[in-house]
From TrEMBL:
PANTHER family with a match to the protein in the record: CALCIUM-SENSING RECEPTOR-RELATED (PTHR24061), G-PROTEIN COUPLED RECEPTORS FAMILY 3 PROFILE DOMAIN-CONTAINING PROTEIN (PTHR24061:SF599)
Family, per entry: Belongs to the G-protein coupled receptor 3 family.
Stretches assigned to the G-protein coupled receptors family 3 profile domain: 432-696
Transmembrane feature ranges: 432-452, 472-490, 502-526, 547-565, 591-614, 626-646, 652-674
Gene3D superfamilies found in the cross-reference section: 3.40.50.2300, GPCR, family 3, nine cysteines domain
Database matches in SUPFAM superfamilies: Periplasmic binding protein-like I (SSF53822)
UniProt gene name: LOC129339486
GO molecular function annotations of the record: G protein-coupled receptor activity
Name of the protein this chain belongs to: Vomeronasal type-2 receptor 26-like
Main location group: membrane
GO cellular component, one term: plasma membrane
Length: 699
C-alpha cells in the first residue's frame, strides 16, 4: 500500500499499522502480561491483524490462552448464535488465568464487548469481581451513536485503548463552543449534526417528519454527554487538521518556487509555464512544519505521516461522565525497544483489581533457585518449576536453565546466589593450628629437658650402658621431629612444600634407624659374650653409626629422587570442598610419597622384630622391651594414619599428619626415656655401678 500511495500521491494521515503491533507487544512485555486472550472481528482486516500479532507474540514469548472470532452482526437470524457465542466466550474469559484480553474490532464491535461485560457485571453481583484488563485497538471508535447514547458506559471503566495520537490545539475548544447552525452559513454539515446531537429539528424541516424540539441555536455544545460528543480534539480530527495545514504549506512552497523561477530572457522577465496540480506532490512529500501544538508534521519516504499512537485509560464516573487519561504513547522509535513510554502510576484499573496491577501469566514465575520445565502439550508459556540440580543456581526469575557458579564461588542453600569461597589452610590463628603448634613446641621443650638431663648425667651407668652417642642422636632427631610439624602449619609456599615431607621422612628414618642400631648392638653384644664368638669383631661404635647412616641415606636418596623428578609445589584445590578454596602442598608424585612412608614402615617392622627377639636378654639396662613397645605405638599410629589421611581433605588432612607425627614421636619419647628419667631423677640409688654389678651377679 505504501508503494501505491507514493505512485498516486495519496498520503496516509494515520500512523502505520505496524507501529500499533509493536506498541501492543511492548505494552504486554512492559506489564509482564505473557498469557493473554485474543478476540477479533470476522473480516479481512481482523484476519490480517491476527496473523501479524500471532507472529509478533511468538517472537516475543507471549502465548495465547484463548482466541475467539465473534460472529458477523449483519447476518440475519444470527441473534441466537450471538447469544450462544457470548455465553461461551464469557465462560472462557472468566475461567481463564489470562487476565489481559486484546479486543480488535470496529465501531459496531462495541455491542459485542458491551454484551460480554454486561454478563460479567450480572455475575459480579453475587460473587467477587474478576480482575480483567481489556486492551482495545485504535480501530474501535468510542464516539457513541444515538442508539448507544442511552447505554451505560461503566463497562469500559479501566479499559486500556490505543488511539491515534492527538494534542491539544490552542483555542480549539473555544472555537467549537462558538459554533451555531445559524452563524456558520458556509458550513453545510452543522445543521444535520446539530439536529442529530440535540435531538431537535429546524423550522424548515419537511412536514410530517417526526422529531423532537425545535432547534433554537441556543443549545450548547458543552452540554452534550461525553460519550456522544467530545469537546477535545480526537486523533482523527487532529490528523485532518494537520492534513489541511500540510497542503497549505505545500501550496506555499509551490508558490515560492514559482516566484523564484522567473528568469531574464533577452532583457525581459518571463514567467515559467504554470505548474500543474500533480506537481504539488513534489512539494507535499517534502513538507515539514510545526503545528500550533508545537509538534513537527512530516511524511516518510512512503508518503505516510510520521506519527504514533496514544495509550488511553478510560475512567468512568457514576454520572456517566468520563475522562480519557493519556497514560502513554507509542512513537516511531529509533530502536524497536524504545517505542513505548508509559506512566503506570496514572492507570486506574478495573474495580475488581483493587487498584493493583493484574497479573496475566499461565502460572506463577519460577523464583530464583528454580528453572522452567515445559509442560507437554501446553504452550511454551506454561511450565513447571523444578529445583536446580545440586551445585547449580538460577539468580533470576523464569530461567530456562540453571548454571554453575564460577570455580571460586559456591551456591547458597536456596541456590539463588553464588558466595565467594573462603580460602582455607591450617593457620596459627585458628584453634586447631594453634593447638597443634603449641603441642609441637611443648614436646620439643620436653625433649630438650630430657636431652639436658642425659647430658648432665652422661657419666652415669644408665646413660653409658645404652650407647650415649645413639641416645643423643635419638633425642636430637625426636626434637627435630616435633619441630618439623611446624612446617605443616601456615600458608603453603614453595620452600615449605619442598621441606615438609622430605624433612619428615629423613628425620623419622634417623629416629627409627637409631632404635634399630640400639637393638642390634644389644643383640650382638650378648652374642659376643660367648667364648670364641665371631661377633666380637662387629661390636663397636662403627656398627651403630653405619646402621644409622645407611638407613638414613637410603631415605635421603628416595627424597632426592622425589625432589628432582616431581617436587612438591603449592597448589589450589577448588573442587574438594564446596565452600572453600584449599591451599595445599601438592605432593606431585603420590607414589614416591608412599614409598617414603613405606620405607619408614619397613624400618619400624625390622626394629620391632629385632627388639622383640632381644627383649629377654640378661642386661640390667636392656632397652629392647621398651623399643618393642614404642614400635607398637609407632606402627599403630601410622597404620591408623593412612585411611584417615585418605578420607580427609584440606587443613584437616594436614592436621591428621601433624597429629600422627606428634603422637608417634611422643610415643617413642615416652616409651624409651620415661623409665630412664625415673631412675635418673627419682631413683638415683639405682643408677650406680655397684647396683649394675649386683644385678649381673644375681643373674
Amino acid at each position: 500500500m505504501a508503494d501505491k500511495a507514493h505512485e498516486f500521491s495519496i498520503y496516509g494521515m494515520v500512523p502505520k499499522e505496524a507501529l500499533q503491533y509493536l506498541g501492543i507487544v511492548q505494552l504486554l512485555l512492559h506489564m509482564n502480561w505473557m498469557w493473554i486472550g485474543f478476540m477479533a472481528d470476522n473480516n479481512e482486516n481482523a484476519e490480517r491483524f491476527v496473523q501479524e500479532m500471532r507472529l509478533a507474540f511468538s517472537q516475543s514469548g507471549i502465548c495465547l490462552a484463548f482466541e475467539r472470532v465473534y460472529p458477523d452482526l449483519k447476518l440475519e437470524g444470527a441473534f441466537e448464535d450471538i447469544l450462544k457465542w457470548i455465553d461461551e466466550t464469557y465462560n472462557k474469559v472468566i475461567n481463564s488465568t489470562a487476565n489481559a484480553i486484546i479486543f480488535y474490532g470496529e465501531a459496531g464491535s462495541m455491542i459485542i464487548l458491551r454484551s460480554l461485560l454486561q454478563v460479567s457485571e450480572m455475575e459480579e453481583i453475587v460473587q467477587k469481581p474478576k480482575c480483567k484488563v481489556w486492551i482495545l485497538t485504535a480501530q474501535i471508535d468510542f464516539t457513541l451513536s444515538e442508539y448507544q447514547r442511552s447505554l451505560d458506559i461503566q463497562f469500559i471503566h479501566g479499559v486500556l485503548s490505543f488511539a491515534i495520537h492527538s494534542s491539544e490545539l490552542q483555542e480549539f475548544e473555544g472555537f467549537v463552543q462558538s459554533r451555531t447552525p445559524f452563524k456558520a452559513k458556509e458550513d453545510g454539515f452543522i445543521k444535520g449534526f446539530w439536529a442529530h446531537a440535540f435531538n431537535c429539528m429546524f423550522p424548515n424541516t419537511v412536514l410530517g417528519e417526526e422529531g423532537g424540539d425545535i432547534c433554537t441555536g441556543e443549545e450548547r455544545m458543552e452540554s452534550l454527554p461525553g460519550p456522544f460528543f467530545e469537546m477535545r480534539m480526537t486523533g482523527y480530527s487532529y490528523n485532518i487538521y494537520n492534513a489541511v495545514y500540510a497542503v497549505a504549506h505545500a501550496l506555499h512552497a509551490m508558490y515560492q518556487f514559482k516566484s523564484k523561477s522567473k528568469t531574464m530572457i533577452s532583457g525581459e522577465i518571463r514567467n515559467l509555464p504554470y505548474l500543474q496540480p500533480w506537481q504539488l506532490h513534489q512539494f507535499l512529500k517534502c513538507v515539514s512544519f510545526n503545528n500550533s501544538a508545537g509538534e513537527e508534521i512530516s511524511f516518510d519516504e512512503n508518503g505516510e505521516l510520521k506519527a504514533g499512537f496514544d495509550i488511553i485509560n478510560w475512567v468512568i464516573f457514576p454520572n456517566q461522565s468520563f475522562v480519557r487519561v493519556k497514560i502513554g504513547k507509542i512513537a516511531p522509535p529509533t530502536l524497536p525497544d524504545q517505542a513505548l513510554t508509559i506512566n503506570e502510576e496514572a492507570i486506574v484499573w478495573h474495580k475488581g483489581c483493587n487498584q493493583v496491577q493484574p497479573l496475566s501469566v499461565c502460572n506463577d514465575k519460577c523464583t530464583p533457585g528454580y528453572s522452567k520445565n515445559r509442560k507437554e502439550g501446553e504452550p511454551f508459556c506454561c511450565y513447571d518449576c523444578i529445583k536446580c540440580p545440586e551445585g547449580k543456581i538460577s539468580d533470576k526469575e523464569d530461567m530456562v536453565d540453571c548454571f554453575q557458579c564460577p570455580d571460586n564461588c559456591y551456591p547458597n542453600k536456596d541456590q539463588d546466589l553464588c558466595f565467594q569461597k573462603v580460602v582455607s589452610f591450617l593457620s596459627y590463628q585458628e584453634n586447631l593450628g594453634f593447638s597443634l603448634a603449641f603441642g609441637a613446641l611443648s614436646f620439643s621443650f620436653i625433649t630438650v629437658l630430657v636431652l639436658v638431663t642425659f647430658v648432665k648425667h652422661h657419666n652415669t651407668p644408665i646413660v653409658k650402658a645404652n650407647n650415649r652417642r645413639l641416645t643423643y642422636t635419638l633425642l636430637v632427631s625426636l626434637l627435630f621431629c616435633f619441630l618439623c610439624a611446624l612446617l605443616f602449619i601456615g600458608q603453603p609456599e614453595h620452600v615449605m612444600c619442598l621441606l615438609r615431607q622430605t624433612s619428615f621422612g629423613i628425620i623419622f628414618s634417623i629416629v627409627i634407624s637409631s632404635l634399630l642400631a640400639k637393638t642390634i648392638t644389644v643383640v650382638l653384644a650378648f652374642m659376643a659374650t660367648t667364648p670364641g664368638s665371631r661377633m666380637r669383631k662387629w661390636v663397636g661404635k662403627r656398627l651403630a653409626t653405619s646402621i644409622v647412616l645407611s638407613c638414613s641415606l637410603t631415605q635421603a636418596g628416595i627424597c632426592t629422587v622425589w625432589l628432582v623428578t616431581s617436587p612438591p609445589f603449592p597448589d589450589t584445590d577448588i573442587y574438594s570442598a564446596t565452600e572453600e578454596i584449599i591451599l595445599e602442598c601438592n605432593e606431585a608424585s603420590p607414589t614416591i610419597f608412599y614409598c617414603v612412608l613405606g620405607y619408614m614402615g619397613f624400618l619400624a617392622i625390622v626394629s620391632f622384630n629385632v627388639a622383640f627377639l632381644a627383649r629377654k636378654l640378661p642386661d640390667s639396662f636392656n632397652e629392647a622391651k621398651f623399643i618393642t613397645f614404642s614400635m607398637l605405638v609407632f606402627c599403630s599410629v601410622w597404620i591408623s594414619f593412612v585411611p584417615t589421611y585418605l578420607s580427609t581433605r584440606g587443613k584437616y588432612m594436614v592436621a591428621v599428619e601433624i597429629f600422627s607425627i606428634l603422637a608417634s614421636s611422643a610415643g617413642l619419647l615416652g616409651c624409651i626415656f620415661i623409665p630412664k628419667l625415673y631412675i635418673i631423677v627419682l631413683r638415683p640409688e639405682l643408677n650406680i655401678k655397684e647396683q649394675l654389678i649386683s644385678r649381673k651377679a644375681c643373674i
